[in-house]
Amino acid sequence: MLDILLIILGFIFLFSGIIGCVLPVIPGPPLSYIGLLMLHFTKKYHFEADFLFLWAAIAIGVTILDYYIPIWGAKKYGASKRAIWGSIIGLLFGLFLFPPFGIIIGPFVGAVIGEYSIGKNSSEALRSGFGTFMGFLGGTLIKLIVSGLMLFYYIKEMMV
Predict the structure, then answer these.
(1) Please, what is the angle between helix 81-97 and helix 122-159, to 10°?
(2) pTM of the model
(3) In this structure, are residues 18 and 32 in contact, taking their beta carbons and an 8 Å threshold?
C-alpha cells in the first residue's frame, strides 16, 4: 500500500516539476528529483546511489543556473533591472491572461515595458526585451530537458 502511495506521489512530483519549469515560482527540477526519490524508496524500484547523486547535483546546478541565465541574456543585450522584473511580471500576467501563448509573449512585452518605463527608446527597449526573453527561454529549456529526463528515467524504471 505504501509503495502505491510513493509511486503516485512520485508521479505527482514529477508532473509538478515539469509545470515548475515554466512557472517561475515553482522549482521544477528539484520537484522532479523528489519524484525520483519517491520511486527509489519503494520496495520494488531502486536507482543506484551514483545515479541519485548525479541527478541531485544536476537539479541543484540547473536551479542555480536558472537564476543567472536570464540575467546573463538580459545584460548581454543591455537590459536594465526593470526589464528583468518586467519580464517576470509579464510572464505571470501572460500565463493567466493568455495561456499558453502568454508564457512566450508575456516576458518579452514585460521587459519592453520595463525599459520604456526608464525612458529607453524603442530600439533599445526591443533589444533588451529580446535579450531578456532569450535568457528566459534558455533557462526554461534547460529545466524542461532536465525534468523531462528525470520523468523518462522514472517511467523507464517502472517498466523494468
Answers:
(1) 60
(2) 0.80
(3) yes
